[in-house]
């Protein structure tokens, strides 16, 4: 009897331990009220226990603090676009901590630096990038610097930004470049703009762990641009299509992610409605396309890899579903497992 009880408790602990939280950012309306949480089974890929974590308007992009105690969300609000901080509860709900202006319309991306003391928000509509100090309790101060890429004749659409040591990189879809800023005297100063092909539309990007390669996914011409660091600067070494060779319709890229071992790169296509898979040469940084697979939905805006690397999950905005795929360990290729209906998912965060 005692043995059976121990076995039951061990089994219960194992089943509980393999479930981790997934937070989902949405566009709010008839089908959604804010940020939702799910339980994700890291062994089976199953999503269960959907819960409204917090009511908030159009939380279209989410990120965590390093310890995952604070969640940050941009809000494409009808009255004043903003970025908010929330504390994460054990029951996977969120408590509002504070909110500050994003200093531009249409905030679409938020990211923290490695130290966790800075946040950066990209404003697609306003064409600005705002940089914030983070307090010890995780709350945000008002932006101490707002970078404006607009000119009198050129419209900026800042779409994403990431820190790398004392550098800040910004993908500007409107201006067609990846900007590199360097921190000097507590301000970020422009070092260089790396231009993409004409009408490419850089949207999101991934930086390799050592910072030697940057992979930029281009929304408008459905390509990935590979930048290689050479003599302290980056140069373009490859442009490769994200689409199937036989696809002839209209399509727009969205998100991009490297696998944890950096052997594979994934991107999403809205229109072809697919995930593209590349094999990556870790030495040269070059890519070889090995798969395009249907997202089993419409308009894959954002996707993510599970922390253990075994699964890939896709947020299909227009078809109101999350599609789940098994990742083959050796080949990196995807196989569809199942799909779960949920209102207007646009960002997935483990």
From TrEMBL:
Q: Which Pfam families does the annotation name?
A: Lactonase
Q: Which spans of this chain does the record mark as coiled coil? A: none
Q: Please state the span of the N-terminal signal peptide per the UniProt entry.
A: 1-19
Entry keywords, A to Z: Carbohydrate metabolism, Glucose metabolism, Signal
For this protein, the parts annotated as crossing the membrane are none
**InterPro entries found in the cross-reference section:** Cycloisomerase_2, Haem_d1_sf, Lactonase_7-beta_prop, WD40/YVTN_repeat-like_dom_sf
GO biological process: one example: glucose metabolic process
A GO molecular function assigned to this protein is: 6-phosphogluconolactonase activity
Q: Which family does it belong to?
A: Belongs to the cycloisomerase 2 family.
Protein name as annotated: 6-phosphogluconolactonase
Q: Which organism is it from?
A: Lutibacter flavus
Q: Upper lineage ranks? A: Bacteria, Pseudomonadati, Bacteroidota, Flavobacteriia, Flavobacteriales
